[in-house]
What we know:
Elements: H1 11-25, E1 29-32, E2 37-40, E3 49-56, E4 73-79, H2 85-94, E5 102-107, H3 110-125, E6 130-135, H4 143-146, H5 157-169, H6 174-186, E7 188-194, E8 214-217, E9 228-231, H7 235-247, E10 266-272, H8 278-296, E11 302-306, E12 316-323, H9 335-340, H10 366-373, H11 384-400, H12 402-412, H13 417-433, H14 441-456, H15 458-476, H16 488-503, H17 516-529, H18 532-545, H19 568-581
Parallel strand pairs: 3-4, 3-5, 5-6, 10-11
Antiparallel strand pairs: 1-2, 2-4, 7-8, 7-12, 8-9, 10-12
The chain binds 2-acetamido-2-deoxy-beta-D-glucopyranose (3 copies).
Amino acid sequence: MVSTKHFVHDPDKLVASAISAIPIANPSLAVDVENKIIYRKVAESEKVSVISGGGAGHEPSFASYVGKGILNAAVSGSIFASPSSSQILTALTSKVASNKGILQVIMNYTGDALNFGLGSEKAKAAGKQVETVIVGDDVGVGRQKSGKVGRRGIAGTVLVHKIVGAAADSGFTLKQCRDLAQLVARNIVSVGCSLSHVHVPGSEPVTETLEEDQIEIGMGIHNEQGSERVKTPDLPLLVEKLLKQLLDPNDKDRAFLGQLRPEDEWVLLLNNLGGVSPLEMGAILNEVVSALGSNYSIKPKRVYSGTFMTSLNGLGFSISLLRIEAIPFKSDTSFIDLLDYPHETIGWTGPQARFWDTTSTQNNFSTEAVAAERIEASGLNFNKTAFKESVSAGLQAVISAEAQITKYDDVVGDGDCGTTFKRGAEAVLSFLQDDRLPDDPVVAMTEIANTVEKAMGGTSGAIFSIFLTGFAEGLREIQPGAGKSVGMKEWCDAASYALKTLYSYTPARPGDRTLVDAFHPFIDTVSQTGDVQDAAKKAMQGAESTATMAAKLGRSTYVRDLENTPDPGAVGVATFFEGFAKTF
Ligand SMILES: *[C@@H]1O[C@H](CO)[C@@H](O)[C@H](O)[C@H]1NC(C)=O
Ligand SMILES: *[C@@H]1O[C@H](CO)[C@@H](O)[C@H](O)[C@H]1NC(C)=O
Ligand SMILES: *[C@@H]1O[C@H](CO)[C@@H](O)[C@H](O)[C@H]1NC(C)=O
């Protein structure tokens, strides 16, 4: 089902309000709310003006591309409906400079072509010079099926705007701007795909829906039907299909770019139709770029990935490819120069490639970074044999208790505590068994801390790593250093130091139903009496006492009924001490 939930339901108020928001973010612009026109406050009379527009619902297209360097004005209709010719006429005659002429770059939809056509005819009758370029970059529906309707304009259109807007700002004439826009438009192919239709605020629910396991290839940016529906394939298969529609020279129904030359250079625009998570967009970009490279030997000169032209909150994306051509009448300027040209819009989110340094292969911090990672020796030493024996026994106990810890965490947490503890214990155990334990106890503790953090990850990884790093710091505090062997008193002092370090990062204290309820009694007892076995017993009692405590922090806070289950983290820590103590 396509959701009909929205924050704003009245479509007219929605468009008027959204358009009014643009000058808030970009104070170089003004808005004519009545005519839904966004325009630059400064009209540069010695330059060609470029305008665009169309239905609302495709934001940031087009109003957010108004600003120096791209569009001089944009005219918006209602959601998915063309603006009227009188709105367009207002823009042409009173919102942009017209001394050097005006270029309209619009998309190939019947309403837009008619209204912008009519608007420009009226403006010409009033003495203005106006040229119009219509972009139809979509290859989604092939020649046969699209018939008289022709190719629609979709996200590739913004590449025309970016390039021709920069050209106009840098002094191209009206005829040059028009010819350039046509040249760019001819060399763009785009195709989209969607998981779902979109719902227009204030309208009836969408009746046409895709099945849970279907993707529609070639769906338009107004819910228009695409070329086919496929069962959700793997992303690589989907991307292969899309690229084939864009580039296959043997596709009789498409092949809009004709034969490809190996020396051709390209620009890639991956566009979010509005509702795809940026996380998924990253994976899609990765797949598209690798498929272009491996199957077509295409390595784009510029890659734009983001939200450029939406279909409201569309759950889909489109791929546009622009083949770079030389500009015959302006040999000192390239498409890339114009794409990289500065602009003052809030909508264009391309990289600032002008500042890129593509010659260096390495950053010049690398040697310092390595130095920072090296741990300085402390001059202390310790009984490695005894350390390994005791710690290994503790770790073995934790590994054996995995099922028990998991059982508790299934009740009070999300069930992964046992496996996380086991993972950490196994990693340290293999570190010890591989004979990688350094001779210096500070270095050893630091490396164990790093091993635990890497193996456990998440909150528990961080907690243990802070504790063990604090332990290493505590050892380093021991004076005077050189040659001194770490004995019981020093281990205890370092452990107390570690607990203090942990306390500076967490508000958890004994009684809060956390692993502190095991740590605290152990360290407290062993520091006072030196009796490791008794300390381990107190740690286990502490862990068990958490069963009747209310959760104040961490994973269990949101669980309603803890069923008298002890805190799994505390049990894990106490289990370690239990195994550890048996070697004394
Ligand atoms: C736009 O669509 C019309 C039919 O509506 C078609 O004749 C024309 O070729 C299309 N233009 C472009 C640039 O694709
Ligand atoms: C490679 O490209 C050709 C031509 O477009 C296409 O037929 C083929 O399916 C593609 N193969 C892969 C693995 O993408
Ligand atoms: C180190 O510990 C082992 C095992 O507990 C013990 O046998 C050995 O004597 C200790 N070595 C030193 C130098 O204290």
